[in-house]
Amino acid sequence: MPAETAKGRLVSPRFLKFLLAGGVAAGVNFGSRIIFNNWMPFTAAIVLAYIAGMITAFILTKLFVFTESVHSTSRSAMFFTLVNLVAVLQTWVVSVVLAFHLLPWLGIVWHKKEIAHLVGVIVPVFTSYIGHKKLSFRSH
């Protein structure tokens, strides 16, 4: 039987909202990487796309997920950026290792950059949620 939260729910409503906001931001991240890749190398496009997604995530998360933060918007933005610096490093490492090493080694070449980047974007979901809950948008 799956583990349940203290209130008897498998997943909290706040985490579901976080996933939804993050999903929209991930879409911005993923889509903009494809566009940016037309003008710059894959590795640089990953970072720029992550910034576009991060701005989207901050706005959506502040407005709809962690609405009772004790921090000012600027302080939340500072912590949000710090948490996302860790996450962008995770995204970059996973994307590059998959695209240029693991997927080719496995014989996967069809859309290898897209597959690698998608996995790279998914990896930091849980660490980011904890970081934003405990730091970026800490409540009383």
UniProtKB/TrEMBL annotation:
**Annotated membrane topology:** Multi-pass membrane protein
> Pfam family of this protein, just one?
GtrA_DPMS_TM
What species is this protein from?
A: Paraburkholderia sediminicola
Which compartments does it reside in?
Membrane
Q: What family does this chain come from, according to its entry?
A: Belongs to the GtrA family.
Does the keyword Membrane belong to this entry?
Answer: yes
Q: Which PANTHER family match?
A: PROPHAGE BACTOPRENOL-LINKED GLUCOSE TRANSLOCASE HOMOLOG
Instruction: Name one process (GO BP) from the record.
Output: polysaccharide biosynthetic process
Indicate what this protein is called per its UniProt record. Answer: GtrA/DPMS transmembrane domain-containing protein
Q: Which GO terms describe its cellular component?
A: plasma membrane
Where would you find the membrane-spanning parts of this chain?
Answer: 15-36, 42-65, 77-103, 115-132
Coarsely, its chief localization is membrane
InterPro entries reported in the protein's UniProt record = GtrA_CellWall_Glycosyl, GtrA_DPMS_TM
Q: Which keywords fit this entry according to its UniProt record?
A: Membrane, Transmembrane, Transmembrane helix
Biological classification of the source:
Bacteria, Pseudomonadati, Pseudomonadota, Betaproteobacteria, Burkholderiales
- Provide the GtrA/DPMS transmembrane domain boundaries: 17-137
Signal sequence residues: none
